[in-house]
Specification:
4 helices, Alpha-Beta Plaits, about 110 residues, alpha+beta
Amino acid sequence: MIIAQLGILAPHGQRQELGKAFVSLVGPTQVQPGCLGCRLFQNWQESDELVIQTNWATEENLVRHLQSDIYKRLLMLLELGRTPPVLQFYMVEQVSGLELVEKARNCAAISEDC
């Protein structure tokens, strides 16, 4: 799985407008082949910072998305940012959930090397 995370700092007073533009890209992105999810976040500490995160099944799916008209629209929106955007790609080999927490908590409780 590949996680693409893009952060942008909206111009003062334009967060709502830019956020709505990003929201309009979420649905079309989610239905692209290999998209495992697309979410938009707002930073609580810096309210003008918006982060859009997409999860992709394969690198090929991600590359197809990067070549799409939807991504072209996203790139055009990035031009509106107050500062250069921050873009990061994470190549994920394994995903765990509560079972990892449970294992860690049980190991700590019985003081064994797990």
